[in-house]
Amino acid sequence: VEFIASENLKGVLALHSGSIWWGDRDSGGQLDTNRNTLKTRMAYVDWNVPDTMLNLKLGLQMIGLPGAVAGSPVLNTPMAGVSASYQFTDYTSATLFWARPWNNASDTVHDAWDMFGLIVPIGFDGFTITPWGEFSLLGRNVEVRDNADTPIFGDSPFEKKAKMWHAGIAVDVEHWEPLFIKADFIWGQVRANEH
What we know:
The chain is mainly beta. 0% of the residues lie in helices and 53% in strands. Strands 1, 2, 3, 4, 5, 6, 7, 8, 9, 10 and 11 form an eleven-stranded antiparallel sheet that branches.
């Protein structure tokens, strides 16, 4: 759902539902049930700064790192954050973002995961190269999980703070159509339980 205030300002709300089994009360499929089955997937403000090429998005939004072949294995999911995109030329733009992929609503100290990223797509005639990078600060007790909800670094969260970074280049060549060349180069490092 889009709530459009003007050509430069709108709000976006996206809801989704999990698996609902018809007639099942626990999943919200029974006719007389009043269980909550809808969840918020995205809720953000989308603002184009007037008379500029700057776009800002603030709130729960889809944030993904580039992936030319099959999407990004590092990050591609809705999360709370702020992103700023600027179109420098017809061929070059940049996106800078801060996001919080995980935050524990408890009394645990330093329990958040803060991610900072930069994406710079550069396009030519039939050729696009997109360098990107992200740097993450992971607090105590942060649980890092993959798309299957499996802990990436073992069954227990970090006992102390951690730092993580990834960098990559996505390449997409369509100059020799119908021959297409796509490639991703990704590398990174995690340093956990340092202090």
